[in-house]
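Sample A.
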Amino acid sequence: MYGDLLDLPDPDPVYHTYRAACLFYMGKYKEAEAEVDRGPRSKLQSRIHFHCAHRLNDESKLMNYHQQLSDSLEDQLSVAAIHYLRSHYQEATDIYKRLLLEHREYLALNVYVALCYSKLDYYDVSLEILAMYLQAHPDSAIAVNLKACNHFRLYNGKAAEAELKVVTDGSNGLDMDNFLIKHNLVVFRNGENALQVLPPLIGTPPEARLNLVIHYLRNGEIEEALNLVKDLEPQTPQEYILKGVVHASVGQQFNDQEQLKMAQQYFQLVGASASECDTIPGRQCMASCFFLLKQFEDVLIYLKSIKTYFYDDDDFNWNYGIAQAASGNFKEGEELLLLVQNERHLVDFCYLSWLARCYVMNGKSRLAWELYLRMDTSDESFSLLLLIANDCYKQGAFLYAAKAFDILERLDPAPEYWEGKRGACVGVFQQVIAGRESRDSLRDVLSMLRNTSNPQVEYIIRIMRKWQSSNKEGGFEDGPSM
């Protein structure tokens, strides 16, 4: 329509400005910028330039047009909006609250303040402020959606979904085609219908791309997640964090050191930033950064500061448990790893190997051995067996070290496995003599020794049987040598 008006003789040049505003809302920021320059100089022209500069990531233009803005209501609303979009939530809150004091009749300002408080993790405060607007407009899709999001953070997805019924069931409300509601129902339902709902919404709410990435990560589709974020230029802490998580996942799965380095840098950028360093996500980022650097004492500093918020969180307990164990705190490591309930975690080799190490270091080698016995034969079970064999040997749990080396030797008759088994069997013998191991253990030792065709075997067995013969009380008679 504005194009038609501009084709008339002697049109009002302000139509260029209005047309630019339409182009901006259509997401055509470069066209909007060119169009608004054809209109007269005005406060509206400056505001359109200001918003276009933000969308086009032009920092110099953004600062230039920021300086041209006045203390008028419209200009200050634009400044607050840009602060909000750049994750400067406290600065946006300060402007909105000041404007609300001056214009109490503008009820929508309550929604803007509530949005800021929600982003600052003050969900209760956000709900309290939002209630003022909902009293006047109970079927507002934006306000009800924000209320549902706060309930999701405070409680769970079911509580959040219940709040949306005002707009999904109300006769005057919006239906299920509302993109915010469709998007958030996927989140509230823990990813249900994510692949049907989220792909078409990418670019509409910024969270659609991020939540689709999260869906791929949760389902082990790492490369799909990487494809979604590789061209994403992060602007918010959430985007930096998610890029870090994706690069860390790819790096760990494919042993790609370059990906791990990128992940570490993204985590450090967020964790060390002034706006995020004291937030829970900021501290998680620093912990993740140090985890990738294998500086586990530093990991513990950050995870200890937020552990009260994550008692039942499997991922947190996994990371915290491994960090404790890697720092030599095996008792704490075992306790934390045993809190993990996720079935996928419980069969993961990384989890099993660290739990086995904790068991051995805490004098519970039998439990570590049982972890191995429950595994199917594979490269991972071989690796766990090797870990148990060496850790048990170091800890003086010679019986289980001998059992592990015995199986390793049968799977791969390498000389070092025989040497490990020989040392462990002699270690058991010494513990039996010292009364620190049951005499019945010698039966297992003698049986394991006979599995090896080595000239040293007969000599060791002869020494053990000689000791048995001279110490028959409470002992047992061994069968003939094979």
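Sample B, a different protein:
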Amino acid sequence: MRVLLTGSAGFIGSAVGRALDEAGDEVVRVDLMLDKAHGSAVAPAGTHQVDVRDAASWGHLLDGVDVVCHQAAVVGAGVTVADLPAYASHNDLGTAALLAAMHQAGVSRLVLASSMVVYGEGRYACAEHGDQVPPPRWVEALDEGDFENHCAVCGAALTWALVDEDARLDPRSSYAASKLAQEHYTSAWARQAGAAAVALRYHNVYGPGMPRDTPYSGVAAMFRSSLERGDAPQVYEDGGQMRDFVHVDDVARANLAALRAVVAAEPGSYAAYNVASGHPVGILDVARLVARGTGSDLAPEVTGGYRLGDVRHIVASPAKATAELGFTAQVLPGEGLPAFATAPLRR
């Protein structure tokens, strides 16, 4: 199988590329090498340093390609209005330009890197009043240290539940809005072009090769950096935020499964899948697991601070990916996060 891989030099793209190589597939690597992601690093050997926003100019790279694996994107929290143009340009326009170039080249299969952020807040329920869809949390409540979502009827704190792919989509940051736009462009392209696509909604990805101290660093990498400086990890809110941490090697395996599935899919089809470990963990526990892996006795510091655009809980159900793609995570957080504490990172 000949695969064009965008974002091939990135954290996840590199892992996907290695997995494709090991599986015997032919990989056409494409990466813009953005400074904020790669610093002054040069493009790896065999990488075409091109911009997906200008895909029409390098459409010849799509010749003979069976399927595209689209990992390229500007990532991060996207918590300020100033982030909007970058997300709209690289993520929205970049995806639209790539899809148009694929159609021109007759390439009709795509796997898209999406994200859990398209859900906004996760799934919640009140013990007395059932399922709830909470609005964005009030700044006044956050300032007072009230971080939970509350029942609209009785005011009780809501409990979290697993989110499946049919959940309401409600992006709450500029980055989240751009990822949902990518999905919308992709699903429209699949219908209009008689193509087929899969979107993989990654949860918190971590593992060897993760960038160090950049906007692309996840919270686990930030905790690790603090510990290496001799500082206690700084935990936002009260540390009770629930997330799913999925190892980058598992994300690569999910991509391989999706690529094989989409090549065989019916024209006009589109499907989204959660890519998660299936083992939820609180953010305070993430800091503790990383600290344990370093051997540090520094206790995490719960700051009570917060970031607008962050959600309280978002925990996925990976059941659909298991049933339809045959994907099940092999590296669980209790093992992977301590090991990550001493894994090689990218500067």
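Observation for Sample B: DSSP finds ten helices and 16 strands in the chain.
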